[in-house]
Design brief:
heterodimer; A: about 200 residues; mainly alpha; Cytochrome Bc1 Complex, Chain D, domain 2; B: about 475 residues; alpha+beta; Sulfite Oxidase, Chain A, domain 2; Immunoglobulin-like; 3 domains; five-stranded antiparallel beta sheet
Chain lengths: ~200, ~475
Amino acid sequence: MSTTTERALGAVAVALLCAANAAAEAQTPRFGLGTTPSQAELDKFFAIMPDGRGLPPGSGSVEQGKAVYEQQCAACHGPNLQGGIGDRLIGGRGTLVNNDPTKAPVKTIESYWPYATTIFDYVKRTMPFAAPDSLTDDQVYAVTAYILSEAKIVPPDTVLDAKSLAAVKMPNRDGFIADPRPEKFPPVARSPHQSLMIAPPPTAK
Amino acid sequence: MNKTPLEPAESRHGQSSTADALLDAEARQLAHERSDPASPYFTGDPRARLDRRRFLLGSIAAMGAAGALPRSAHAAAPLGAVEHEVPPDASKTQGYPIDDSSYGSRSQFETEVRTRFKTATPQSSWTFTPLQNGVGIVTPSGLHFERSHAGTAVIDPGKHFLYVNGLVREPKKFSMRDIRRFPSISRIMFIECSGNGLTEWSKPTMRTVQGTHGLTSTSEWTGVPLSTILNEAGVRGNAKWLLAEGGDGAAMTRSIPMAKAMRDCFLAYGQNGEAIRPEQGYPLRLIIPGFEGNMNIKWLRRLEVSDAPFMTREETSKYTDLRPSGKAVQFSFEMEAKSVITFPSGEMMLDGPGFYEISGLAWSGRGLITRVDVSTDSGKTWRQAALQAPILPICHTRFRLPWQWDGKTAVLQSRCIDETGYQQPTLGQVIALRGLDGPLGSIYHLNAIQSWQVASDGRVSNVHDY
């Protein structure tokens, strides 16, 4: 074996050892690229967690939220929160358990969303549709309170802030299960009534 | 049209406009293709195939007048093409000159396009890849399916930064120049929307393979391993999840398990040899091999390391799979093994009995496709299809099977097996196990065997046969 190869193998061993050490030490910077952002830069961002981490200071009442809703939301989500261009926001409780293939379950904030913190996060980052991330934190607290009140999840005199929003328990909080896949599919006999359903011929309107 | 189970539920819950509009869009596209002699959907006099040139000019003029289909800026050319005069014999004249600089365009005789699902707004919407026209495994960048929630963001790469914060030793900020200095990797890989096929749970709805399966596409993606970027910031020991955030109007967010983030994810700035397309996330997209398309965050601007999932809207109220029990499966990440015959496929017309090469695509989010079988008799018997190299993990794999059609009614199906031994189920098996809690079932993650019926007149239809 040539010394060159030995040296190369030695280098590989050292590299492997370094890689192992890096992993063991929970990674140290390796390339020295990038810079350190200022706190002010990072403060522009947010992401709210179910336990309330990330929620900003501020508060809003159901009544204030009604005004925000009518001005900023009703055009798409309907005057009664029943949907339009945008999703339906309330109703649908009791429709999730459903074995009827002809009737769709009604999935709304009221019936389906497991965490109230998600409303704040989503409204703040994406709404209103034409001007995302333009509401003040107080407005987002308020409109969240209004939606939850219309959904009969909080009373109409509610004022939401970081603490009270994180404490809201949503009706479908326990409605989610872990992924069971990959599944073991049972052998299934051919079903005569399902056999050869044909898509209707296309008709342009 | 017969009354179907889809109608009453949909009209009651206000979803009918979306499904109807989608069918309208598909029907309009089909009506156009029906009269195109070169289209596999052509239904006119076969002799007209010789006279395609006249059709193209005539139909495009008609479409322009009616406003039926989108037109390119260039007067008479299909989208993505430039119209040139066609000489009687190209070997007897000079062709058009080679420009001093150019980008290139497709043939003026090629017309396939992505088609949009007619959602309420054109910003929160999606388009389907025309799989019926595809050959090989790579999707042309301009035909890669789209799914965006706030339109296509326009971002100057010189002003774009990726921030890394949360449970890290040192928050980091990377410019695109920084990102491109890291050691890079490339990977040819499919991305599939977990809503691909959502209309097909309870009855055959879309007519073409573009409508039934067009939310999957394959590109070569080039970028930096996510682990490289996270190591640069130094992930803390209690880190379990990673939030990825887009820089579009939806500031799209998904939580990703840290183990997956460190295993094989990467940040792509390249697609098929050039910069990633705007609608695919220019200048930077998170690629999560084998996981549902929505998680591959586009216009990536921030990664936040945390000890728990954030429970964003896209991983709670959407992209969760509600079952008849009222419980919904959450974090159903993997796109499971799936295949579809792309030729012949829905609404095509076969010319008559004789030889055809059945061809299609198979893919699995869990790795390699190891086998594809094809049946031409409603699944009674199966023959092993040939797989075209390269066969890559988490990538479209092209399969082929020679077929002599005897002119009788036939039902064509394909089923695949991946390297984990998982076999693509029948629709009957999926429904027997998961149930059907509405016309759209649990919406996401339908990976059942697709059936196409070839009628004795050669017409191919989307059917449920199980």
